[in-house]
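Marked as duplicate of an earlier ticket. Keeping the data here for the record.
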Amino acid sequence: MSSIPLSNLDSVLTSTDKAKGLPNQHYISEAVFEEEKQAILFDNWSAIGTGKDIPNPGDVKPMNFVGMPIILVRDSSGDINVFQNTCRHRGMILIDEPTNISGVIRCPYHSWCYDLKGELCATPMVGGTDTNSHESINHQELGLFEIRSTVWQDIIFVNISGKAPEFNDYASKVIERWSEFKEPLYHGGKNSSFSLSLNTNWKLAVENYCESYHLPWVHPELNVTSSIEDHYHIEEMGCFSGQGSHVYNQIKNEDGDVFPDFDGLSSKWDKTSEYIALYPNVLLGVHRDHFFSIIIEPIATNKTIEHISLYYSKNPSEMPQLNPLIDENASFWKTVFKEDIGVVEGMQRGRNGLMFDGGKFSPVMDSATHCFHRWIAQSINDFRSKKYRL
């Protein structure tokens, strides 16, 4: 039986006016971090990277996702595949650095080789110094371990456990909500991707993003152009939550030029922007003229990295006159996101206070954050019920 007190989540699974937030151990306990890795991150569709990270056929990028060694691979057909980054022979790490491979993925240990679709294609000396085959080595059974994956809005999602529903079912409600925003998206270039390191638990970054309550005090300049009074809650229980604004002012250069709109948008988006957390770990923002994603990478109980990418409706090469504006927009959002660092790190330090009991939500202002808490709590309870047959 788990040493984690299962009843602790009962106070989360109630209405916002009565609920408390997640208990402290969900931010500081190594045991709970490991449990959430399985119950939240591996059992659902988690974001791990973007297609722009591997733009060309043959591009391979290694990464660790909460300790899981992974490689992102774009094959010769342009499709993206995700594999466990271990050789089927002796478990050696295959790729240490991002690279482009024109031939095969070769294990540096004994030179077993795999093609870009993960199939085992060479086993040198496996039957002796002069024999590259053996009756016990079935190539068709020894391809790389493929991780269930999909790409949406250039975000690479994985379901490591294989237990989640199909992605189009899992994300159907956000896909429908933003159906007017059609791909392709065009990345803004070098300065339109950046990462921020936060000394906080990954969930606090998500929780903060869900609500606009902090806007006047943490983002005073943003509050001038899109004030807290202009915002509304977005809540889809069990799927996503966040906020929107009825006031969106396009960024302009000194000549009054703006970014081109996405094609086919209704008038709703003339002044509306929306910002949601698609559970568990990707934060999204849509506007009439640009889109961004923030992939939340959990590192440890108190360490998180945010990977931010900004996209546009047209290729920057087709609008070179707007390149300075693209960089200005990236700088603007970087400033906004950096303003949140102090509060999410402060909440993490506060979770070491033994008497903190999860806190009290505002039923009016915190419901989108509580929506995320309820999803976490329910997911963990479901996981525990199956694991311990409660």
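See parent ticket for discussion. The domain at 180-356 is CATH 3.90.380.10 (Naphthalene 1,2-dioxygenase Alpha Subunit; Chain A, domain 1).
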